């Protein structure tokens, strides 16, 4: 690839589909993931986990395990009580006190950490945890979040005081209050409502979570490799939990095998593994089994939404109301953040004038809920975009026309929605038109076409985290190559290529000259990590700012040597040259050499030494206000999806015949990478419908903790995808115009397919996933009633957003299986 | 027990516990970590290797069962020098790049599947990639001119959570075309 040569033409590197520079090591099998590291003296940790979803722990006897061959250390919560403190309070307002290394008196979900064994081999560690004796007193598990919210339900986290919490609803304070909801609803021509539930699909990254702690007893320094999405927050969390100064903790993420949100936290096994290395003075690795991943790694968490939407006869959406109940599992993790951000962003791309939302993050005796691609937006869109169709149907309006009437229009931007979201630019209106044009809407038996639209934040200022920044440091080396130390923690997103493109573009050098290092707290400046579709826009802006600072120094130096004004100069072809004059000026390499080795030639006041700069970009976003309003994201990407779906009435199977994605991703740095992000994001949306769901039985035990029973779609299960239709509306806030790419294609998928299924069958599917059995049952029930139904539950008349009636259950006995 | 397996043309012998999986033998005895553990339950395909030319999930085969037989792993696909690029214990490695030519490896030394994966963006985190490549290598040897649907069916046993599969399917078809010449 002769990109350097191309640069002589002055063409920008932005918008070029460079194949990724990360690929070679991965393609040849030489890339090193945590499990591939082979340090001398390595020990293996296996964690004993609670088999019960809810149980008092009366006694733990570690002695039998300690006596086994090869066992080096065995410990549990009582042993580290004084050395490890609960974490989670690094950020402002975050709910804290329940993030702990080991369950002590009580286990609150199946798979919670109880003890650990550290041994010379994995098998010895496995044998050791089997020898540990624990006396449990099982308690009644609370699996259903609505039951957990009942006033008489036992409180799961009974030892922790949560501000804004009521019983198991540890955050019962989420409210959106915009306009006059009641009035608008009473005035509306049609009001539609339903109870929607979404399943707990997992991220199921193929690399199981893994970490390797290496504590050097003589220096007191802990080097910690982890498959993490955020090295700096993990470093800070570990240091705090372990009472170590941050100078003594280095966190590195080597190659990481996917995350999708699920590797963005400080996890108990990470703290435990670090403690094990400190206690033994040897390197210790912990790799979770697939079962452990399904049991304990946060999935989406089950959400229940009682939602209603009001519309005028002309199709204008006038009001939206919701009561959201989010099963967050036994500990608090990110749950209430997902509830808040997902719901707020989920109201887009409409400027709904009257909104009333009550949200509850609820503890249940299930595995923790956390971020999975979309951060709650897909769940919100699943409800809202179906209600739009329901209202349109009642009014006899076309679903595309109704949406076109309500979506924000690019021509009106920048605009501020009643929710306070400042949308700088958008093409969602045109995306919708393009998607509608591209899909075949002709009628056919048992075939339906559905649409949905969304906007997605590009990174976000979390209510609990008043920061939305990324940092990059650039050092010019004395041979003219460029070292970039990038703060975020990629795990498949291709930062090594994208960031190099941005830097090479700003410095006028060949992209081969730029080398990007990421994911190391010792060499890379503080950043929040890789999540929330933030790489291209937020990290990319930090990279551009740092490069521009370096460029200014180069030009200052060159102007001095060439005895000219800085305005006469530009960077290109690896040089600082006279504007528009190829082959003139000085090579960057020579300028860097001067600064390092010939300092008498430097202009006065020019700092000798390496030419370098560091920059941090913190987005100009607002904090969430108490009425739920605020501009949490600097810019908003958008997507309009259309699906043509066929249903087999005999088997209940549905099949996507055609799927169209039209997106606004602003300015795209690397189209090849962004297309991959869209297609991968589509998979995670599709999976929510197709059958991905971690299921807990009434006893709180995971019923499907393996890929055999958990339906992760294969290539044969997914439809063929066309290239995404990109309709770029460059961001006017992000200096380079980028918008987030990673999640906008997840958010509308479930709603799009559900709307298509409704068009095909008349049944409104309100619960995810939508399995063939569901389709069959719904069709039978429709036939029995002689009318299309809402599945699985009908919602009788009701009295307002806070007064929801009990839904009517079908009589199961009347249904044929 | 003693097990000897020819891996990528090189005999590797080791004294191992009889419960040792082929995956563990390849990774821990032969030191080739390109085959990866994604589930250890024969479902994800990250551990796929060729055993006497047939795709197997190496987490589902005992090393003893492969005694005296031939195994090909992802490390055997490229013909040129493809030594480990970096040592992640000394620096953050994600994004590390050494131009192929600077390392004496030209792109022609990659297998056509590797080359097509690179061009089509058929890998993101890369954790599934080795298994995908070997499964496709065996498949294209049997079915040199497949349809898209046949490629998708052939990949049923290999999960990818990053790409949505389209780029993998496209890369397979591109490589097939090039391999047919
Ligand atoms: S590790 Fe062998 S199939 Fe998943
Ligand atoms: S590239 Fe990440 S799982 Fe396939």
Can you describe this structure?
The complex is a heterodimer of chains A (about 800) and B (about 180). Chain A is an alpha+beta fold. Chain A folds into 3 domains: about 5-30 and about 470-620, Aldehyde oxidase/xanthine dehydrogenase, molybdopterin binding domain (Aldehyde Oxidoreductase, domain 4, 2-Layer Sandwich), CATH 3.30.365.10; about 35-140 and about 210-255 and about 265-295, Aldehyde Oxidoreductase, domain 3, CATH 3.90.1170.50; about 170-200 and about 300-460 and about 625-790, Aldehyde Oxidoreductase, domain 4, CATH 3.30.365.10. Chain A has a 7-stranded mixed sheet with strand order 3-5-1-12-9-10-11, with helices on both faces. A 5-stranded mixed sheet of chain A has the order 7-15-14-13-8, with helices on both faces. In chain A, a hairpin with a 7-residue loop joins strand 23 (about 575-580) and strand 24 (about 585). The termini of chain A are far apart. The model of chain A is unreliable at about 1-10 and about 810-815 (pLDDT under 50). Chain B has about 180 residues and is of the alpha+beta class. Chain B folds into 2 domains: about 1-75, Beta-grasp domain (Ubiquitin-like (UB roll)); about 105-180, DNA polymerase, domain 1 (Orthogonal Bundle), CATH 1.10.150.120. Chain B has 5 helices and 5 strands, in the order E-E-H-E-E-E-H-H-H-H. Chain B has helices spanning about 20-30, 110-120, 130-140, 150-155, 165-180, and strands at about 1-5, 10-15, 50, 55, 70. Chain B has a 5-stranded mixed sheet, with helices on both faces. The interface between A and B is large, with 84 and 75 residues.
Beta-strand percentage range of chain A: 15-25%
- Helical content class of chain A: 25-40%
The computed structural class of chain B is alpha+beta
N- and C-termini, Cα separation of chain A:
59 Å
Main beta sheet of chain A? 7 strands, mixed
Mean pLDDT of chain A: 93
The CATH architecture of the largest domain in chain A = 2-Layer Sandwich
CATH fold topology of the largest domain in chain B: Ubiquitin-like (UB roll)
